[in-house]
Amino acid sequence: MQPIPEPTTIGPVFLVLSFVTLAGAVAAMSLRNLVHCVLCLVVTFGGLSALYLRLDAEFVGLAQIFVYVGAVAILIVFAILLTRSGEVLGGVFSTGWLAGLTVAALVAVTLVVAIGRTDLRAAPESAVVKAPVRQVGDALMKEYVVPLEVTALLLTGALIGAAILAMPDRRSK
Mind listing the pLDDT tens digit for each residue in 99-109? Predict the structure, then answer.
């Protein structure tokens, strides 16, 4: 069993990506305009995908870009634009901000205590399985093409249904 190598110094690229990711997340939580919040969420998702790509987790990084940036964020933007007409929320903080802050602090303390009590050096070495994006893509296009197409049709139907529900009813006027 090989010992776990000592952590190296944190590089400037990691610091910039973490700052962009955290700034996007804080802005997404604190801005008042919903469209601006979603755009900041897209920045956060992009920062996370860049961090995954930096860690040589190509599939997770690309899936983060395709699924979250390309699909979820765009779907949220469409939902906001279809159902609300640029409406701005009342305030930055909700009425239960103290309870939320208390729960967040308890979760942070629990995580710090749990991580502090673990002995990472005694962990067994795990086998690293590399699945390049090409292999995953080949499997999706050869073995799982029918579930992939069914999922695409289901999501398209959901988007069309949301657009129909958001349209104003002309008969009621």
Answer: 878 888 999 99
Q: Find, among 91, 80, 74, 83, the residue nearest to 29 by Cα.
A: 91
Please identify which residue in the block is written with the tokens 């973490």. Answer: 18
**For the packed helices 12-30 and 34-54, what is the interaxial angle rounded to 10 degrees?**
160
CATH number of 12-93: 1.20.120.1200
**What are the structure tokens assigned to 163, written together?**
């657009």
User: For residue 148, what is the DSSP state?
Assistant: H
One-letter amino acid at 124 equals P
Per-position DSSP letters for 99-130, written without gaps between them: HHHHHHHHHHHHHHHHHHH--GGGSPPPPP--
Where are the chain's structural domains? 12-93, 134-173
Q: Is the pTM of this model over 0.70?
A: no
Rounded to whole angstroms, the Cα distance separating 24 from 52 reads 17
- Per-residue model confidence (pLDDT) at position 20: 94
Closest CA to 41 of 77, 86, 88, 80: 77
The alpha carbon of residue 160 and the mean position of all alpha carbons in its chain are separated, in whole angstroms, by 24
37-93 pLDDT tens trace? 888 989 999 999 999 988 888 888 888 888 888 888 777 777 777 776 555 555 655
Hunting for tokens 């000592």 — which residue is that?
6
**Cβ pair 111, 117 in contact under 8 A:** no
